[in-house]
Amino acid sequence: MPQPPTISVIMTTFQSERHLAQSIESILTQTFSDFELIVVDDKSTDNSINILRTYQDTRIRIIENITSIGVAGSLNIALGQSQGQFIAFQDDDGISHSERLQNEFDYLLQEPSCACVGSFVSIIDNQNKTLSVIERDYSPKELKQFQRGGDSMAQGSLLIRKSIFEESGIIDDAFIFAQDYDLVLRISEKADLGIIQKHLYSQRTSDKNDAQASSLELQHYIKLAQKKAKTRYVPYPHAEAIHQKSNTKPDFSVIMANYNNAEYIGEAIQSVIEQTSQNWELIICDDCSTDNSLNLIKPYLDDKRISLIKNSKNLGYIDTLNHLTSKCSGEIIGILDSDDYLFFDAIERMTKTHRDHPAAVFAYSQYLFCDKNLRAYSLGHCCKLGPNKNVIQHDCVGAFRTWKAWAGNKVGPFHNDVIYAEDKEFILMMDELGPLFFVDEVLYCARILDRSQSNGPNKLKSLASFQKAKLRAWRRRKNSSITNLSTPETVAIAAYGLGLAFRTRLHKHGLFFLRHLLYNPRPSLWAINSFISGLRGIIR
């Protein structure tokens, strides 16, 4: 009796005559030859089945569906027929590079904690021309975090241990689209994921693929996968005590400033309502929006934990934040922008962090940069502070930003004269009050829109204000034991800020930087280059 193959490559086909032969040939020419290729045709009406029948290679098994059952059902048929210890996916129009299976097999042998591995991917057109590349250069932990944001590893690049399906379950046929995202999300809850930093797979963007799903349909199924993940969620130890605290005061105050974010504010509010921890209040302050924001907020006010403040005139983001913080009754405060999104366990996780670390005045998490549809495209910049990482020299603290209410009262309000960097100065002042704690989990999605501070015309103004905030922190920290800048560093910062102020016409900032340079003269090539960088708008 022949030995079963090591790898089972599974493929579904439907109306794939144009690229099917090239896809199959890319598997048959692999340097790793101990495999079977199981192809399930989902009742194609073109020439696909005739193309399949031309192959005489004994490693190929063809299954013809009597009726069309869709991608998920067809993949499960192939999975049920597979004999290998490992399952490799292959799209019917994709191209596996000749060493793909060998590289992925070797990786899983060397990494026993990893159950699923993919690779860098090239996006090609119908003529095999490379249009773009996907390179997720992440550690296993970062890769797990990235999955939460809705951006999956390319299905056609995956090699998976067959044994993991017993824990994670097979492909969910409730998913017409995004079934690969749901599968990898479930696997990531049970084992590590891996990425090989080589281009081993080419994924085709064709007319057929483009017609398969609209963005709204795809987002629906991604959200469905994330909701299902919530039902599988296991609370943190002692979470029940957090949920069932009997006093009338909320543990956590979420503050949300809003101005003309009608398109996104409903999702932001809903992300608070769906939290695993329910002992919170959400205070929204609308800064005289001219869109439909207020009408969208109104139905949520039936929930007594949600309150709305309406400014009588437009105050701007900073004064609105200060108004919000003055209304909080929770022992912990966190900022959620009205176009962003919290993961379902964010409040529970941060509440537990503050309780477990009573000395910490401020706690922050990792986050994802997302597009307008909340599809993640990169991890945020947050990291743990330490001897070689501090907030005055490294911009490594961001969302989800939370702090103990008493600490916020002690530090004082957000400052208007560092517009677009008010949060960074607040963090610097918190750092001077006590320890900051990093939660190395993705808990927050930050939408990057054309009008965003980090992506729009205010980006350079934000940078200029941050330089001002750092110099003010340097002054406060002089003659203290708190980590500080050296005088030459402040000169370079002032020179860079001066260049930015000239470029962005922030005249008051410019005078501030000029005064610092006059009182701390350290003419150097470093300072001159810093000024030129600021003048040119170079991001540093």
List the main descriptive attributes of the protein structure presented here.
540 residues, alpha/beta, Spore Coat Polysaccharide Biosynthesis Protein SpsA, Chain A, 9-stranded mixed beta sheet, 20 helices, 18 strands, 38% helix
| Residue fraction in strands | 15-25%
Name the shape in a single word.
Answer: elongated
Radius of gyration computed on alpha carbons: 27 Å
Number of H- or I-type helical stretches: 20
Termini separation (Å)? 65 Å
Number of strands: 18
Helix content: 25-40%
CATH architecture of the largest domain: Alpha-Beta Complex
Description:
- The chain has 540 residues and is an alpha/beta fold.
- The protein has three domains: 7-231, Spore Coat Polysaccharide Biosynthesis Protein SpsA, Chain A, CATH 3.90.550.10; 239-447, Alpha-Beta Complex (Spore Coat Polysaccharide Biosynthesis Protein SpsA, Chain A); 460-536, no CATH class.
- It is built from 20 helices and 18 strands.
- The protein has helices at 20-28, 48-53, 70-81, 100-110, 140-147, 165-168, 179-188, 207-212, 215-231, 239-243, 265-273, 293-297, 317-325, 346-356, 405-411, 422-433, 459-477, 487-504, 507-519, 525-536, and strands at residues 7-13, 35-41, 60-64, 86-89, 95-96, 114-124, 130-134, 159-161, 192-204, 252-258, 280-286, 306-310, 332-335, 341-342, 362-370, 376-379, 402-404, 436-447.
- Strands 1, 2, 3, 4, 5, 6, 7, 8 and 9 form a nine-stranded mixed β-sheet that branches.
- The longest helix has 19 residues, at 459-477.
- The chain starts with 6 loop residues before the first strand and ends with a helix.
